[in-house]
Specification:
Elements lengths: L3 E10 L9 H14 L7 H4 L10 E12 L2 E8 L3 H15 L6 E4 L6 H11 L20 E3 H6 L9 H7 L14 H7 L3 H22 L10 E3 L1
Amino acid sequence: MEHILFLDIETASIEESYSQLDVRMQQLWDKKAEKLKHTEDQTPSQLYKNAGIYAEFGKIICISAAYMKNNKLRIKSFYDTEEKTLLQNFADLLQTYFSKKNNQLCAHNGKEFDFPYLCRRMLINGIRIPDILNVAGRRPWETKFLDTMEMWKFGDYKNYTSLDLLSAVFGISSPKEDIDGSMIHEIYWQLKDLQRIKNYCERDVLTVAQLFLRYQGKELLTDEQIVFL
């Protein structure tokens, strides 16, 4: 595990409300929203609270990373209202400390969400994608990505299994005790409580690391083995 960086990201819409988007982005969100409707009366404005899921309409507000050193899991978070700042700091960490060939990144549903979202937002912000994240031109087996959701599938591609469900199955404390992802928009934009989001993100990344240990048939980390930097 000393060669694995566990991570989790939290995202929010690029603007607080649909009305704050410029005309062109409103029109493009209108097209996206058509595919997201569950009922005909849902409007693009109502659906905009879900915009943070999409890298073209959202931004990263927190990245929590965890790594093992001297039998302790060290957790460090990058969070800021300025997305470029936190992305650059995280990119510097990857390039400086996790550029060796045997290092890997691990996240839950990371291959579908965290890893591509990070790359897309780095490009948008003009930040060079660190080598460990940059999969352009690589074959699938050449990537440095581990995904705890994919590992649970055992070749079954039909179902999504949440981190919360797997933590319950394996006897790991729930990372959703305070908030869940559906509440991020309000907590970030209305309550402006980035610290609370950071704490939630850290619980998620800790759960990913604990789940990985369970997959290996190992004991969970104790509180004494967890260090917040």
